[in-house]
Structures are given as structure tokens and as C-alpha cells.
């Protein structure tokens, strides 16, 4: 970086604050101490780094504000939707019910945007969802059609779930049924008293104006009862129907939903909404009132969505990062709050690398965990001590305690993080024209009689068996840290423009691994089983010695891909005999 700046005779401070460069970098502050700037100037640089996410959010917001969204004048139903709605209307007629049925929220929004949506929520004006579902089931039975998957999800006010929801499956689609609501809060309680409400009252209790639209099934028409849902949809704005702070305190999860929809559609978060989302009252309510499972679900939808970097940038900008990704208080070493910028920068780089390499190289699950591994990369060496004093990676705490994700997620991400040092050692060997050089990788075992020309294949084979189908993820993350002798995070941020070079590095290493025949090496069946090993060693039971020899024999198999069972056993007997004589 310094050599480059000296060559082109450009003031690095001027270069850093260039709007076009800032837009390209999307990065944290660079390390410019070697240019001998005054302390006040360096403070200015660091301040810019701390607020990098805010700058990026502003740039994207301004771009989104200039875009006018195409919104359809009316909703066109597909055949399945027509059949479902016909069954619901026929239920009304069958029982002579004076009931209005409305599809609420996301389905209406997506249909108006010309997108298909399979998440249908029905709002009912004069009965509970469970009561109407019973009517639908009875009607279906009268026509000879069986009702499937009928059930009720109870309300849970302590977790800001104020409505009972009934569910049933119609034509292979899950349909949710709830009553229209109005809410009254007592002076000393945040738990509302639920009463039946009008459609307009219900619309104003929704999280966002773009989600407050109704499709009236009875009249086949769209209803915009807040008076601005369609307008905000067309102008690309994320706005709450009521004052945002009131809306968020009612259900603090709406903060994360606002961020998710803003990122997903590229919409602008209204300034008053941003201020409310970042205020302490809302952050405290998010921590106190919302279950970790619901927070984890929202975060996972963001990471798995079409704009994960924008979503995490919003979270960092609104000072919600440490509320969502809560760390154990006993972490070692201490993590600075500014680390969130580095987390987002790594996520940004991984997201761009995935697209440069080609999304088809990764499955959906591999992409998802790759992004988590990148986001939590600054924590890869951070641990905490559990109740028994055992050292545990803090990534495990984030997944299991802060997000309540499935147990396999932290296990996989931690494996990826632990593979990085070995990948960093192997990358120059895999990409070198001289494939005869030895692979000096600590595999935790001594490799007997492995030819020098085979050591690279052996070391790579063992590494890939550790991370299995996530080896490409480990390789991609490693290219972001390569070479390993650089000045860690700051050096990475300074060289972030070199994504094309990192892509080429990934491709070269990937091709080498494929050419070595190791692409799915974890599926390789050992030539010699434990029973054969016990026979050669004249053991009556298994144990550490058998496991040790299993590894040695696997190393021999990697080194001799065309080897036979007999050759492998002959090598084992010979090696065992030599070892016995030496002892």
C-alpha cells in the first residue's frame, strides 16, 4: 500500500477520503501511521473507520431513493391461489357467515411487485383464526375433501407474540389464520389487551407500511388503509404506520424485520425509523422481550438472503451488532466494539468472492456458512471459559446462546476456522509449479515412508477429510488471509481491492486439489479395516494403537492412490517389524 502511494505520488489521506474510492472499498479505516500524519489527522481517519458502515448505508440509501419501484395496479391470482380462495369463500357461503377475509402483509406486497409468494396469512374480522379453521375443515369434509395439518400456535405476550395463530394446509400450501386486532396498553404494562379490531386498526398495528396492505378476498381488491403503503412501495421506503419507537417497543423484533426488508428490496430506512432503532429503549427491549430463537431466525434470513452485506451494515450502523451478536462477558482476548466494522468487511469480501468465483461452486448451505465464517472471522481465536473452566470458542457461544441456531452450525464454522492455518500453509504449495516440494503441515502425526513427492497429496487429503464438503469454504476464507505473514486485519483491509487476485488464487488451489483426485476424499474407504490391523499387531482389542495405525495406513493410501489391499498390508507388516526391532 505504502509503496503504491509513493509510486503514484498521491496523498494517502486524500485518496482515502475520495468518494469514489470509499464507494469501492466499503471498508474500515486503513493503517496510515507509517505516513507520519499528525495525531489529529489520524483521529479523523479512525473516526471515518468507526462510521464506515454508516457511510455505506447512506450511499446505498441515496442510490435507492433515486429508484422508482414498479408496482402493479391489481393482483393477479395463479390457479392454486384461486382454488384456495374459492374454498374459503365457499366456506362463508356454506355457513352463511357475515365475515370478511383478507390476505395480509407480505403476500400482498410481493404480488404487487410481480413476485410469487407462498406465505399466505388470512386476517378475519369477526372470529378467531381457530374458529374459522374449524369451519373450513367442516366444509371440506362435506365435499369429500380432507383437511390437513390443522393446528394452533398459542399467543405468547412475554415474547411479544400477541396473537393466536391457526394453521392448515390447503393444496400443499400452509395457510395461517388470525383475527384482526386492536390493542390497548395499561399504564404500567407493555403487554397489550387484545380485542377484535377493524381492518384499519389492524393495518396501523403492522410493522411496516409496505406490509400493512390487504387483499380483500370477498371483493377481490387491494386495500391500503394506512394511506401510504403503496406510495412507500413505489418510492422504496421503509416506514412504520405509527411512530417507529412505539411500533418497535410494541414488538422489538420489528427492528430486525425493517432491516431485513430494507436490505432485501434495496429500500431506504426512514430517518426517524433509524433513530428509533438505535435508541437505548428499543435495544433494551430487543434484549429483554424477544427470544433468541426469533432473533436468530431473522439473522439467518438476512444471511441467506440476497443482500447479507447490506443487512449487516445496517445492523452495525444502527449500533445493534453487539445486541444481536452478544458475546460471553468472559471472552479472551477482549474484543473492541470497533471490531464490528472488520466483521462486516470480511463478510463483504467473502460475498464478492463467492460471486467472482461463481455461485454454482457452492451449495446454499455452503454459501450460508461461508458468510457466517467470514462474519465471525475476527473471533476465530477468541475463547471464553464455561462453568467447568473449559476453554470454548466464542463462535460457539454466538450460535448457541445469542442466536440459538442448530448445533451443527457452530461445529462447522469452528472447523472451517481451525482449517485456515493449514490451508494458508498449503496454498503456496498447491499453486506452485514445483509440486515436488514437501508440505510442511503439522497433521498431528508422523508420516512414515511417505515419498517427498506425495507429501502434498497426503497433507491436503487429511485436511479435506476434516472439513469435508466445506473445504471450498475453508479455501475461500483462507485466500482472504493470504499470505499469512502479513499484518493481520489492517493489512487485509488495505489490500481489499485485490479480489480478482484472490479469486485466481482460489481457482489455482481448487484446480490443484481436483487434479490430485481429492475433491471428495472424505468418501474414500480405507483399504485396511480395524480388524485387519489388530490381526497384524496381534491385539485382542482396539485402542489408541489401532487408531494410530489407521491414520498411518490412510496416509499410505493417499500417497499410493493406485495401491492394493495386499500392498498396504505388506507395507504395514514391514513398517511394524522395523519399529519393533528399533524398540
Can you describe what's shown?
The chain is of the alpha+beta class and 583 residues long. Helix content is 54%, strand content 9%. The protein contains 28 helices and 13 strands. The strands form four sheets. The chain has a seven-stranded mixed β-sheet. Strands 6-7 form a two-stranded antiparallel sheet. A hairpin with a 5-residue loop joins strand 12 and strand 13 (391-393). It is elongated. The two termini are 56 Å apart. Residues 1-52 and 186-190 have low confidence and may be disordered.
Percentage beta strand: 5-15%
Query: Would you tell me the overall average pLDDT?
Result: 84
Structural Rg: 29 Å
Strand order of the largest sheet: 3-4-5-2-1-8-9
Given helix and strand content, the structural type is alpha+beta
Number of strands: 13
Q: Estimate percent helicity.
A: 40-55%
Counted by DSSP, the helix tally is 28
pLDDT < 50 stretches: 1-52, 186-190
| Terminal-residue CA separation | 56 Å
Mind summarizing the main beta sheet?
7 strands, mixed
Features:
about 575 residues, alpha+beta, two-stranded antiparallel sheet, 28 helices, 13 strands, disordered N terminus
SSE map:
Blueprint: H1 2-8, H2 12-16, H3 19-25, H4 39-50, H5 52-65, H6 79-95, E1 101-104, H7 106-112, E2 120-124, H8 129-142, E3 148-153, E4 165-170, E5 173-179, E6 181-184, E7 193-196, H9 199-204, E8 214-216, E9 221-223, H10 229-235, E10 237-238, H11 244-250, H12 253-265, E11 268-269, H13 271-278, H14 280-289, H15 292-303, H16 308-317, H17 321-324, H18 339-357, H19 364-375, E12 383-385, E13 391-393, H20 394-402, H21 408-430, H22 455-467, H23 471-481, H24 488-494, H25 499-515, H26 530-537, H27 544-559, H28 565-582
Parallel strand pairs: 2-5, 10-11
Antiparallel strand pairs: 1-2, 1-8, 3-4, 4-5, 6-7, 8-9, 12-13
Helix pairs in contact: 5-16, 6-8, 12-15, 12-16, 16-18, 18-19, 18-25, 19-21, 19-23, 20-21, 21-22, 21-23, 22-27, 23-25
